[in-house]
């Protein structure tokens, strides 16, 4: 039986490692030990070969915006955030998409598709924190 984090029930440890990576501006991902495919840490079986044996890797948290949703009226519990975007971005160095919170976005003119973003940290309420980069 493959030795994977998921089979050992180490989800709390994985979450802590994900947060530690985000604080360093990185994305914690899985790399399949069979075929080398990269996937988000939450994937349990390789999308390419179907195996479930992975090693954890930290990837640069820099990418390009592929889509987003702007919340100009924050939902209950997020009133402190003002207007913000929930952003899906493709990492620059690997074929992975991730999502995160980007504050101070009021209109689509504030965040054209293709804009560069980078991971800046993690917040218990907002999740993965992003900022626009040049």
Q: Mean pLDDT, rounded to whole units?
A: 89
Structural class determined from secondary elements: mainly beta
Count of spatially separate domains:
2
Spatial strand arrangement across the major sheet: 6-5-4-7-8
**Rg to the nearest angstrom?**
16 Å
Number of strands: 8
Q: What's the CATH class label of the largest domain? A: Mainly Beta
Please count the helical segments.
1
Low-pLDDT stretches: 1-9
In sequence order, what are the helices and strands, one letter per element? HEEEEEEEE
Fraction in helix? under 10%
Strand percentage lies at 35-45%
Rough outline: globular
Topology (elements, then pairings):
Layout: H1 11-23, E1 26-32, E2 38-40, E3 54-60, E4 62-71, E5 84-91, E6 97-103, E7 116-123, E8 127-132
Antiparallel strand pairs: 1-2, 1-3, 4-5, 4-7, 5-6, 7-8
Explain what the structure shows.
- This protein has 2 domains: 6-60, no CATH class; 62-132, OB fold (Dihydrolipoamide Acetyltransferase, E2P) (Beta Barrel), CATH 2.40.50.
- The strands form 2 sheets. A 5-stranded antiparallel beta sheet has the order 6-5-4-7-8, covered by helices on one side. A 3-stranded antiparallel beta sheet has the order 2-1-3, with helices on one face.
- It is 10% helix and 42% strand.
- A hairpin with a 5-residue loop joins strand 1 (26-32) and strand 2 (38-40).
- The chain contains 1 helix and 8 strands; from the N terminus they run αββββββββ.
- The protein is mainly beta.
């Amino acid at each position: 039986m493959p030795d994977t984090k998921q089979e050992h029930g180490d989800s709390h440890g994985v979450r802590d490692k994900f947060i530690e990576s985000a604080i360093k501006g990185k994305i914690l991902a899985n790399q399949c030990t069979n075929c080398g495919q990269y996937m988000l840490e939450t994937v349990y079986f390789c999308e390419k070969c179907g195996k479930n044996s992975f090693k954890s890797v930290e990837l640069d948290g820099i990418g390009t915006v592929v889509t987003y949703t702007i919340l100009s009226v924050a939902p209950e519990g997020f009133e402190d955030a003002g207007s913000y975007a929930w952003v899906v971005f493709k990492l620059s160095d690997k074929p992975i998409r991730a999502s995160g919170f980007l504050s101070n976005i009021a209109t689509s003119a504030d965040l054209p598709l293709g804009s560069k973003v980078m991971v800046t940290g993690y917040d218990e309420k907002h999740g993965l924190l992003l900022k626009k980069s040049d």
